[in-house]
Amino acid sequence: MTTPNKTPPGTDPEQLEKTGTVREIGSQAVWSLSSCKPGFGVDQLRADNLETYWQSDGSQPHLVNVQFRRKTTVKTLHIYADYKSDESYTLSKISAKVGNNFHNLQEIRQLELVEPSGWIHIPLTDNHRKPTWTQIKIYTLVEESAIGKFPRCTTIDFMMYCSIR
């Protein structure tokens, strides 16, 4: 298991985008969830508001499925989580899988979150630090809190390079 990269407090994807080196590409994808409580679905997960969130409402695994319409270069996954606000609802493990269809998904990152606070930056690069080319990304939120409550996820963003050579 790997540990996610953490940026200094206050560094969010919007600030990173202002540097001109990356851009958010989540809006180019089709999003779906394994389950959600009414009023806590994709719209709340994708809202540019840290007060809204997705909350699952079913048995494990809890899935966030993200499918790009065409092959896309993806550099980083950003997840906002705050243990102090969410306590027992905070995600504890995440698995990132990529592929060109649902039949050839391969896990490229698995990580454990221990009382996360703020933006978590997860590189989606290969061993040579090259970004991932993919059509489908599935983020499996593998495990809920130790108490067994349904996990909450506030925001997920994807970043890619602004210019690809």
Automatic annotation (TrEMBL):
Top-level taxon: Eukaryota
PANTHER family for the chain = ANAPHASE-PROMOTING COMPLEX 10, ANAPHASE-PROMOTING COMPLEX SUBUNIT 10
Presence of the UniProt keyword Cell division in the record: yes
An example GO biological process term is: protein K11-linked ubiquitination
Q: Which Pfam families would you find in this protein's record?
A: ANAPC10 (PF03256)
Q: What does this protein do?
A: Component of the anaphase promoting complex/cyclosome (APC/C), a cell cycle-regulated E3 ubiquitin-protein ligase complex that controls progression through mitosis and the G1 phase of the cell cycle.
Q: What is this protein called?
A: Anaphase-promoting complex subunit 10
Q: Which InterPro entries match?
A: APC10/Doc1, APC_su10/DOC_dom, Galactose-bd-like_sf
